[in-house]
Design goal:
Strand content: 35-45%
Distance between the termini: 27 Å
CATH architecture: Roll
Number of helices: 1
Shape: extended
Structural class: mainly beta
CATH topology: Pnp Oxidase, Chain A
Helix content: under 10%
């Protein structure tokens, strides 16, 4: 039996590659984005045994948790990571949280080789739990790029079903 083909591109047999992607924060693509952690969720297992069936244990789904997502950006003048991190814990005043804007829905787009959006997810109610402004600096490392990191906690994600497979020529 032949392998199933992609719905819009019957000639395509390979999956999308992971090196062409973008992350939109406040509707703007993040400059210099190098890497993003995986979207991963885990559902707890709840074990139970019926009183009339003491020899068999059953397993049902429990609560679902979502792993934090880490974004890595090459050092640039784009202040988006730092501005967002400062909303969660601002060093000015009493260091309180800005409840107005610290949670954001962000968009993750996977692009095909032509740069068209092929798959899109929305990360829901994300907020910054960890921010690294500068990496370790080392004058003996001439071939190392400076990376900022942002760790996001979130309440899950949803796939944008309106994004369909782009036709490739």
């Amino acid at each position: 039996m032949p392998a199933p083909t992609f719905s819009a591109n019957a000639h395509r047999f390979d999956p999308y590659r992971t090196f062409k992607f973008q992350c939109l924060i406040d509707g703007r693509a993040v400059a210099g984005l190098q890497k993003m952690g995986a979207l991963k969720k885990t559902t707890e297992q709840v074990k139970w045994r019926s009183a009339g069936d003491p020899s068999h244990q059953r397993v049902i789904p429990g609560g679902t948790s979502y792993e934090a997502v880490t974004l890595e950006q090459g050092l640039t003048h784009d202040p988006v990571f730092e501005q967002w991190a400062n909303l969660v814990n601002n060093i000015e005043g009493d260091g309180g949280v800005s409840l107005l804007n610290y949670r954001k829905d962000i968009v993750i787009n996977v692009l095909n080789l032509q740069g068209q959006v092929a798959i899109s997810y929305k990360l829901l109610r994300a907020w910054v739990s960890e921010y690294q402004a500068l990496p370790e600096l080392d004058s003996n490392s001439m071939n190392t790029m400076g990376i900022q990191t942002l760790t996001l906690q979130h309440e899950g994600w949803e796939r944008d079903s309106a994004v369909s497979e782009p036709s490739e020529t």
